[in-house]
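Data card: per-record layout.
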Amino acid sequence: MTRGFLEPLRGGKVILGHVADQDQYLEEHDQAVWEDWASYWAFCEGLFAHVTKATMEELEIVMMRVSSPLVLLDQPRPNAAFSLLKLYDYLADQPIPPLLADYASPVVDALPPAEPELGYRALAHVNPSYGLADSQRGILHRVLGQLPGSILAVTGPPGTGKTSLIQSMVANLWVNHALAEREPPVVVVTSTNNQALLNVMHSFSRGTDGEDAFASRWLPKVSGFGLFCPSHAQVETLKQQKVLYTTDWEKGFPEILGKKDYLVEAETVFMENLAAQGAPHFDRMDDVVAWLHEQLRGSCEFFAQFDPGEQAERARESARLSGEVAALETKVATLKGEIKRIGRIQRKWLANQAVALGDILREKLSKSFVEKRNRALFLGLGVTMPPELDLGDDSGLGRYFDYHLQQYRQELEQAEVAHEAALTQRAAWLAEEERVAQAAAAFEDIGSADVQMRLDTGPRRQAFWWATHYWEARWLADRLKAADGGVRKRKKSVAYQQNRWWAIAKLTPCLGATTYSVPKFFNLSDKPLSGFIDWLIIDEAGQVAPELAGAGIALAKRAVVIGDEYQIAPVAGLPRHIEQGNRRECGLNDHDLEFEACGLMVTEGSAMKAADFKQRRRGVRPQATMLLEHYRCVPEVIAFCNQSVYGGRLIAKRKPLEKRCLPAMGYAHVPGHTKRRKQGSLHNEIEAEVIISWLVARAEELCEFYGGRPMSELVAVVTPYAAQAQTLRRRARQEIMLKDLTIGTIHVMQGDERPVVLFSSVVAGEETASFINSDVAMLNVAVSRAQDSFLVFGDMNVFAAGEGHTANLARNHLFADQANEIRDFKLPKKLLLRRSGAKVRHLTDTQTHMAYLARVFEAARERILLVSPFISIRALMEADLLHHIEEAVQRGREVLVYTDAFLDLARTGSGKPTLKPNAAEGRAALAKVGVQVREINNIHSKTLCMDRRVLIEGSFNWLSAVRRGPYCRYEAGLCYADDHCEVLAARIDQLADFFEKKWLEDQKKR
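The structure for this 1006-residue chain is written out next.
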């Protein structure tokens, strides 16, 4: 059956069943060939019935009807994976590109070294208001140091600035290539998530233009820095959103640039903008390019010194110059000392000669006499002469002294010249340091941590715009030469194709395409441009199946894989047993465990898992490549995700809201009924009705609180179940205020955000909320999309009863404060006990609830069952409530109170939690008058039952609610009353059994 109709889905309006049921059937009926049509048709009917839980005649689909059978002729259909498959077919007969070979192998080789000279030099920034955070900057440095053949895995939890990081990566690579006067870098951002790609494209359109002509594009009809390469179906949407695009080289942005009159207009507009910046007049565009490059180089030289690596380099250079001057000074002094010492020895030696005796007499002196005389002289002077020197040869000694004096004088002269040169060089260096110090004076009033921020929004942003205009000039120069009859390359040549991309990259450095489209755009006559993409950036890589990412990786020199393993995993289109069969076919059946571990499995892997596996095996610490600063959610919301999956490493950067209209982590306890469609998906009509009616009631207040924005921009409603999403959408279509509201399964919010996210948990009664712990990513995605408020609507008893780490955390955050509870909703009269015949009344305020409570204790004949998560002595003393309870007990009525075992505990200090004084007094007072008080773990019902005749359910905390003050009117409840209604009586019995069973289970655990 087609995968697009089976849960789990990324949306989908028709659900036929669950993919797990199909996989089970296919594994149990593993057959590829059938004997005849009848046996094949029996197989198909069996599969259909197993998955849909109905025959083809019995199948019912909400909002649809079964029509007459149709025969659909097999017609060619567009295949999104066509280009991807062609690429893999081509590569099957070719040497595997290096980057793909590393990515696709479970074997882990040594990590390629980084380029240190680039690693610390951040040269550019785009955003005029905000600089990079510390973790973003550290990862940027790693990207700039990447060598060809390397893949960098970046863990990017939601709201941590992944798009800003991508923007900065592209900008820095663009400026680096401009400084080196190379061709522009070809940077492709890809993903299977269209929303993620559009976010990146929009980021290169919004906030890039500045407040003056310098920080604006100097070419007409060029806006932003991103070019999207979409499918034809997306073109109209991109036009409406004013995103630059191309579907081929004849349409979209390239079509505009290729018009005959565009070049003349572009040159005129560019030169006008250049002149406005005070540039000299130029006759040749090449001279403009050279001048702009000089401006860029000067801009980068100014701020590079503030980078830690540059500071260290300058410190080393300063130390080297000072050391060189000191060494030369020492050498000059040493040489002067040697000259003086040797001259003194020479003079003493000459004075010791028998000068008075003639030359003839000296010649008659014996050699031994001369040697003794000289030895005595040198010994008396404390001088040790070289052992090889003949002390009996006066003429040799004379030559020795003359030679060394001459040699030292020459060395002294050279040393003095070098010393002067070193002094001059050091003086120039000190002057430069002084200039730098004066230029950096603007940064003295801020801490070192903020210097980089100031540099980002100042000099680095300026460098980005100099590079922008440099590339614009390069593009113009190339076009003008081509127009003048420059060298033309064959359209079918690799060089021609590469030059087209380089021309585009000179104007739009960020190219965007889905993983399916990348092979389509980077090929030549069905031959891929392997290794042509300089950097491939895979965004939301946790959702990208490993085989989809591999195609783009085959075309790239380097890859940066950005994602989060705790987001919604890719939907596998292949059953596990078929994947195992494919591996057997390829001779890989002995490597199952390796493929599972390294994230390369089609059914369970992702590009993020595969890249992260390699990186960890190579010894890179996970935190070294993790974005840590979180900007989307208020601290109270992101704290859940931080504790649930991120080990407390995230740093919340937003401040708590000073004014609120909704709690940060809130809940509405909605008692309802879960229904399971035959196809397996759950839905809860009561819950859907409550959510939609509550949104309608609060819409005006919410829109006003958020400055008049429409509800579609403020609220999203998500649920784990596709059937519930359908129910919610169907109900929302009836309300004009909720037009275009985002409603769906968790997948619809992947890559998106809203101030308020409502979570419809669906499960109720004795159903189990297995989604809480079975898929940690589900709640993580849902919560992390809420900027200000995350609200759970559902049966909180079921939600609270879940076991496991995630369930415990959810309870701790949702039930941390009574103020988190939402009470101002209405339960639908007809849905809770549909067709029961019982009389139904809405209770809408505190006074009405209190009046009914007193009446129950007066009118009860046998038993009163009351469920109140909190108990307070203050509430019991209001309106003589405790007295009414005591009188009922004295009349022989059984009064049974269920309350939560933890919600009333005081959690201050490091000691064991104890009951709050009000709660302790309240429980003691109830016990004293004969009430049975039973504690249940994590109960959140607010239920009141009288005999088998009255049932009240809603939001009112019977034994703790605030009786006075601004919130006392916000209560909602439904009262069902009838002396002879079997449906009502059965429901009361069911509730009594449920609470008693839960109490007995908890007793055993204690």
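Known properties of this structure: DSSP finds 37 helices and 28 strands in the chain. The chain has a mean pLDDT of 83.

See the next section for split statistics.
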